[in-house]
Amino acid sequence: MIRISVGICIIFSHIYFGQSTVLNSIHHNRLMVNALDKIDKTVLDNSDYEGSPFLEDKFLPSKILGEDGIHLLRYNVYQDEIVLKKNEDYFKVPKELVEFHFDNRYVVLLINDKYYIKVSDKINEYSVVKKETVRFIAAKASENGYGQATKARFVSTKPDYFLHDANTGKLIPFKKSDLEENFSAKKEKISTISRKNKLKTDEDYKKFLQELMN
C-alpha cells in the first residue's frame, strides 16, 4: 500500500504527461501545428485511489469558444487542467483557449491562467465565478498490522467565490472588506445585502451581484 501511495503522489504532484503528438482537429487558427501533450491512459483509469480529481465522472460533449464542432472534455480540478478525448487517446488542452461549454451543464472560463466555473451572467461587466478545489489524501498503511489501512483518495472541498471584473480581469473575493474596498461608494448597500444574504448557494451569490449592481 505504501508503494502504491508513493506512486500516486508522484503521478499527481508532477506533470502527468510524457508523450506529445499533433492534434489537427483543435484550433485551426492557432494550434494546428502545435504539439498537444498526450496523457497516459493509466493516469485517468487509475483504480488505486478513491474519489476523483475530476469535476465529472465522465467526458462530456462540449463546445470550445473559437472552435468548430463538439469535443469530449473533462475538467481535472486537482491539476486545474482540461482533458480532451479523441478516439481512445487523451490530451491536455493548452491554456490558450478561454471558454468551454460542458454539455450545457456549466461553463469553464480561463481567468489569469486558472480555470473557474461561471456562476452568473455579466452585469455592468461584473460576473460571479467560483474556483472548485480537490484535496488529495495519501494512503495510510495499517500500523503494526493493527487497524485498517486506507486507500489514497481525492476529496472535494468548498469552492471559493469571486466577483470577476471583465474589464481588468480582477477577481474580488466575497469578503465584506474586499467588496467595500472595491466598491467604496456602495459600502452601506454591501452591509445591508450581507446582513440578509448568507451566501450559501450559487443562487445566493447571483442575487448578491444583482442587488449590488442595482
Give your account of this protein's structure.
- By secondary structure, this protein is an alpha+beta fold.
- The N and C termini lie far apart (about 55 Å).
- Mean pLDDT is about 85; it is low at about 1-25 and about 30-35.
- It has helices at about 1-15, 40-45, 175-180, 185-195, 200-214; strands at about 15-20, 35-40, 50, 60-65, 70-75, 80-85, 90, 100, 105-110, 115-120, 125-135, 150-165, 170-175.
- Strands 1, 2, 3, 4, 5, 6, 7, 8, 9, 10, 11, 12 and 13 form a 13-stranded mixed sheet that branches.
- It is flat.
- The protein contains five helices and 13 strands.
Continuous helix count: 5
Give the helix/strand class.
alpha+beta
* Radius of gyration from CA coordinates: 20 Å
Main sheet: strands, sense, barrel: 13 strands, mixed
Distance between the termini: 56 Å
Percent of residues in helices comes to 10-25%
Unreliable runs: 1-24, 29-35
Order of helices and strands: HEEHEEEEEEEEEEEHHH
Strand share of the residues?
A: 35-45%
Which word captures the global form?
flat
Strand elements, count: 13
